[in-house]
TrEMBL record:
Belongs to the short-chain dehydrogenases/reductases (SDR) family. Keywords: Oxidoreductase. Residues 8-204 form the Ketoreductase domain. The lineage of its organism: Bacteria, Bacillati, Actinomycetota, Actinomycetes, Micrococcales. Residues 273-292 are annotated as: Disordered. Pfam families: adh_short (PF00106). GO terms for molecular function: oxidoreductase activity, acting on the CH-OH group of donors, NAD or NADP as acceptor. This is SDR family NAD(P)-dependent oxidoreductase. Residues 274-292 have a biased composition (Low complexity). InterPro entries: KR_dom (IPR057326), NAD(P)-bd_dom_sf (IPR036291), Sc_DH/Rdtase_CS (IPR020904), SDR_fam (IPR002347).
Amino acid sequence: MGISASGATVLITGAAMGMGRLYAERAVRDGAAHVVLWDRNAEALEATAADLRGMGGSAVHPYALDVSSLPEVTAAAARVIDDAGVPDVLINNAGIVRGKYFWEHDPEADIDAVMQVNTLAPMQITRAFLPQMIARRTPARILNVASASGTLSVPKMSVYTASKWAVIGWSDSLRLELAESGNGHVMVTTLIPSYIKTGMFAGARGPLMTPLMEPAYVVDRAWAALMAGKARIQLPWTVPLGSALRGLLPQPLWDVVAGRVFKVYQSMDHFTGRPETPSAAESAAPSAETRR
């Protein structure tokens, strides 16, 4: 059963720029009553909120916080419920990536940070709102943004890949739990895209027949799938193809196909990422981190 964002409360993480901002703009255009923006970049967040208010129609609520901090998530969730109500639509969009060999990762600044932002944050944010979403007995939607890297191994992206494998497994398990427990009015969609032209994967090269996708195209497709309650959306068509071949072919043959034919294993060879203004708590080289 499909729903509309009209009159709804929509919460988006990583909402100050890129894909998160596009989701927020779509929510405003579709008539959401409240659009809640979460991001750690306070300056960009306020600028985005001002632009969204200029579009008219929706109450816009920006919250500057670090989604990897459970205390901050818990406090912000309580404020959201007071200010805008329980979200009808929750979009777990925030993410970071590290592009380097595993042994070059710093244990805290790289490994812990990626797993906390990409994997633990969506779980903790969803947990903060889900009991109330269930209790209301009205249709609700959750979008968890994973990655094609969560379906195929990619050199120089081992920790990011691990984080997105975990998101896919958790997200789809949550979908099943809600359905079998009689709480199917809350529906979960898992987005599994290949590389997108947001700057997050600047320098990366898409595998064979897999061009870098336009952000607006991905948001449009993901939004439609979310509102329809679709379980999974994989973009582009080569993503499900790659997953199918990976499951069918013996490992040595798949390595040849992925490495020499589709060039999956070489996709991060020229990765640079989008430089990010470091916060007081974190400073990383442009080649090491960028956000969606």
